Amino acid sequence: MRRNKTRNIIVGAALGLLILHLYKFSSDDKIAHLNVKEIRNQVRQLTKESSSVYSWPNCQQNNTAANITGFGSLPQNIQDFLYFQHCKHFPMLLDLPGKCGGANRSEEVFLLLVVKSSPTNYDRREVLRKTWAEERLSNGVWIRRVFISGTTGAGFEKERLNRLLQVEQQEYGDILQWDFSDTFYNLTLKQMLFLEWMERNCPNARFLFNGDDDVFAHTDNMVVFLQSLSDNNGSRHLFTGHLIQNVGPIRSVNSKYYIPEQVHKSESYPPYCGGGGFLLSGHTAKVIHHMSKSIPFLPIDDVYMGMCLAKAGLRPVSHIGVRTAGLRIPSDKSDPYNPCFYKEILLVHRFLPAQIYLMWNRIKDLNMPCGLT
């Protein structure tokens, strides 16, 4: 009800401003009369766009999680995860309903770059916008970009970081932000919030790259690879990257990837691709979103993706060009950042911003000598 009222106010204000604007020009004899049909069409478009901006109330913690056996002995981050594990919706702070040209035109987006980025990582976002995540035509098809983020800090710090993202949004129009704590154990939440957004606003994008903001991604090579899939234009299953299989949860409490039995009882994980970066089709993105509605969240987002694929009877596959564990250099005497080692890959994890900037510019040099030593 409140959303509809707000939308009506926005549309009414837009209509008033539009009429005032046209009236101004008519007084200057730049137009002869008001084009009522044009006004109605523009207001109808505003209504359509504003109605696609969704927001949810804050999700409240489930205090009954404290009754789980052994809950009190779990680390605080695991306790927090269990308190909010049921939460699959959070208020949206920054939205881009027209990012893909509208839902009906989203098939024009060949590769949508979905980059996980915390609010503090401004320097990484700036470099990516100038390098591999630049929105552009590549080999005749469109690459688009979104950074997905939550919130960080509290009080004035949180306000400053939110304002930073707002300023970036005004300049670049590439931020999706929700009002949840942007932590490692909320990466799965971030991924599923994005897939929900995609279903509303970009449902027909052909392919997606999903990855971290500290990777070097050769997105031109990704386009060439995806275009080579003669039997898949994004409407069939694809999920490829650094394949990880025959592993299970880490039970060591000191590990970053610690998962206790209270979160995941099984001693095994299904096959999955490392979360540093992977490619998937629009079809598979929809499947994962659908499966997630009936699978409790797991903190490790790449494993959770594998769980959704397994439930759907699908498997991820390996791609030799995705190196989320780093690139092995053949000789200790070689420069590990020699661009010749990176010209044919799809992705390497991990790079500093300055390294990304330099590498991108060097591999774009068509006259760079490679294969001579």
From TrEMBL:
Pathway terms, separated by semicolons: Protein modification
GO biological process: poly-N-acetyllactosamine biosynthetic process; protein O-linked glycosylation via N-acetyl-galactosamine
GO MF, one annotated term: N-acetyl-beta-D-glucosaminide beta-(1,3)-galactosyltransferase activity
InterPro entries listed in its UniProt record: Glyco_trans_31
EC number of the protein: 2.4.1.-
Pfam families reported for this sequence: Galactosyl_T
PANTHER family reported for this sequence: BETA-1,3-N-ACETYLGLUCOSAMINYLTRANSFERASE (PTHR11214), N-ACETYLLACTOSAMINIDE BETA-1,3-N-ACETYLGLUCOSAMINYLTRANSFERASE 3 (PTHR11214:SF23)
Official protein name in the record: Hexosyltransferase
Protein source organism: Oryzias melastigma
